[in-house]
Amino acid sequence: MEKNLTSGSVFKTIVTFALPYLLSYFLQTLYGMADLFIAGQFIGVDGITAVANGSQVLYMLTVVIVGLAMGATVTIGRTVGANRLDDAAEAIGNTITLFAGVALVLTAMLLLNVQGIVTLIGTPAEAVCGTTQYLAICFIGIPFIVAYNIISSIFRGLGDSKSPMYFIAVACVCNIALDYLFMGYFRLGPSGAALGTTLAQTISVIVAFAAIRHKRTGIRLHAANLRPRRDVLGGILKIGVPTAVQDGCIQVAFIIITVIANYRGLNDAAAVGVVEKVISMLFLVPSSMLATVSAISAQNIGAGKPERAVRTLKYATAITVAYGIAISVVVELTASSIIGLFTTDATVIVLGVQYIRSYIVDAIFAGVHFCFSGFSPPADVRISASSTTSSPSRWCACPVHTWRRRCSRTPCSRWVSQRRPARSCPCSSASASTHGSGAEAYLRRNKGPENEDGSICASVRGCRPRRARRVGPEGPPIRVRYMVPRCSRCLRR
């Protein structure tokens, strides 16, 4: 069953959701670091450079996929928060269809351009062969990378952050065991690292599919849900594409740094590769906050509780800033010991210490950026210091309406006068104790359109003209457009 993230203490909800995700992200990062760590035990600097370069490219692709999947998490979270399970099934089905196509296209394009990618990143001559082998094998496993991240995004949209943790834990254990087998026992070098990674991903996806068959979510997925719908796909891409682009740009910057290091020589390339793996580990908390904010805020916005979504953003930002300051101090004091875990080469350690000490302060600012990236409100939600207050004398708190303009002394008076004599918005939180909260209570009082099951059409919560299902007097259900009236004075778009 999906988990409700719209009630209880906001801080407690953040912690209980973030901890499993933090652990899963730790395991996923450990999953990537294991290749580099074990490679350092059995192969030379050229092998370390090959694995570091290859994993950097692979990580960039993974980040872009995760960014796109964020659109699915938010879309599913909003439908679950609004208790629209049929819409949730449509979102899940369209997510599967969309990313199946993405996986096939990416796999074909990248396999055809392996050599070009290796040349583009300026891989040192000594590591060209190993990097090519590593990337070719990993590119074959792209469908499994996509499948894991999409399944995880669906579960997080449902409010479940524990199941993805179990999936990646299986993959991490398998990857470490296979790395020792292929690189330690069979001496396959970078190819062994890639083979272990791909097989571990495959096992993880198999476990995930097995878990889906036994998990009760209350959502029934049918073949018709897999049929692409422009509005659903548009909603997913509207959120996912900007996130993927901005995260992809960050990774492109890392790739550029890697290219510069590659042209400077083997030692510089190895040092940069090690530091970037360490950085990915240290950025676990900001990354987990991004996913936490996206899932919790999505459900709360879908449930008509934008003030709770804003509080989630504020708490998460405070947590990431505190963490960034603490981790910056620790790294500055122990940089040489951290780099020494991955290599015994003195030159690589010196170069790595210089790089990580100059970079680590970014953890403070990246945390703030990640939190705001995960917050995806509708266009009508305004983030401000007063947005968490529900006083109708200052802001219209109706989830149907907009926070874009201040209400007058008697908020929505012109609109309310058409419906009932009242001095406050009938949908405001101030009257929620009497009338119920949000658009649903208002529509019930005024006989709004009903679904087939008798529930009030929830699609009007965004105050946008959407297709709403309503049962006609005769025959099958008909589709109509419905719009809640707006106050022309203080609720303009």
What does this 3D model show about the protein?
The protein has 493 residues and is an all-alpha fold. Among the domains are: 10-264, no CATH class; 413-482, no CATH class. 67% of the residues lie in helices and 2% in strands. The model is unreliable at 379-493 (pLDDT under 50).
Descriptive keywords:
single chain, 493 residues, mainly alpha, two-stranded antiparallel sheet, 17 helices, 67% helix, 2% strand, disordered C terminus
Q: Largest sheet, described in full?
A: 2 strands, antiparallel
First-last Cα distance: 37 Å
Beta-strand residue fraction: under 5%
What's the total count of β strands?
A: 2
Structural class: mainly alpha
The gyration radius over C-alpha positions equals: 25 Å
Order of helices and strands: HHHHHHHHHHHHHHHHHEE
Q: Order of strands in the sheet with the most strands?
A: 1-2
Give helix % range. Answer: 55-70%
Q: Which secondary structure elements does this structure contain, and how are they paired or packed?
A:
Elements: H1 10-42, H2 45-81, H3 85-112, H4 114-120, H5 128-140, H6 142-157, H7 162-185, H8 190-214, H9 230-264, H10 266-282, H11 284-302, H12 306-340, H13 346-359, H14 362-374, H15 413-416, H16 432-435, H17 438-445, E1 466-470, E2 478-482
Antiparallel strand pairs: 1-2
Helix pairs in contact: 1-2, 1-7, 1-8, 1-10, 1-11, 2-3, 2-5, 2-6, 2-9, 2-10, 2-11, 3-6, 4-5, 5-8, 6-8, 7-8, 9-10, 10-13, 11-12, 11-14, 12-13, 12-14
